Amino acid sequence: MELLEVLDYNGNLTGQILDKEQVHQLGLYHKEVAIFLINDKKEILLQKRASTKQIEPNKWAWHGGHVIALEKNIDAIIRETKEELGIDLNKNSIKLLLKLRRDKMPNRQFTFAYYAFCNYPIHRFNIQKEEVSAIKWFSLSDFKNMIFSSNPDIMFKNNENTNKIINALEKIINN
């Protein structure tokens, strides 16, 4: 059982804590964290979600997951990165990229998207096979092309939230 804190439409805690499945069934807002790892070549690391995932299986996506009840967002992204990629991130190296609200059922959520710099080669990661089938460094240009061409292999869709992500990444990468 994975317990989540329920949020209102504006992202405020309601005081209600429910099981993840119930939160999704009821379409209640909750917290998610995600991270983009960026290397010195200005590439971003994406993961291919496992074929067994209920939401967006076999799609290239960012790393992250739900924030469990009473967990701090930063602790959640450190936990998720350790679980999915097998690496330890230092709290001080993680920066907030942006906060997004997603209204699409059944997974209505507020995503706290982070970024960190990381120059590990692919073989240095130890991926969690239950969650991730592959990882790959992508140029920002390739990432954008996959989105704007509506590539069916990527989780991101050409919409307002994705455009906010791209703009925020461009500012970080082009500085």
Overall description:
- The chain has about 180 residues and is of the alpha+beta class.
- It has one domain (about 5-175): Nucleoside Triphosphate Pyrophosphohydrolase (Alpha-Beta Complex), CATH 3.90.79.10.
- Helices cover about 25% and strands about 35% of the residues.
- The protein contains four helices and nine strands; from the N terminus they run ββαββββαβββαα.
- Strands 3, 4, 5, 6, 7, 8 and 9 form a seven-stranded mixed β-sheet that branches. It has a two-stranded antiparallel ribbon with strand order 1-2.
- Strand 1 and strand 2 (about 15-20) form a beta hairpin.
- The protein starts with a strand and ends with a helix.
- The model has no long low-confidence stretch (mean pLDDT about 95).
Relevant terms:
4 helices; 175 residues; alpha+beta; Nucleoside Triphosphate Pyrophosphohydrolase; two-stranded antiparallel sheet; 7-stranded mixed sheet
What is the strand and helix layout of this fold?
Elements (H helix, E strand, L loop, with lengths): L2 E5 L5 E7 H7 L3 E9 L4 E7 L10 E2 L1 E4 L6 H13 L9 E8 L6 E9 L14 E8 H9 L11 H14 L2
Parallel strand pairs: 3-8
Antiparallel strand pairs: 1-2, 3-4, 3-6, 4-5, 4-9, 7-8
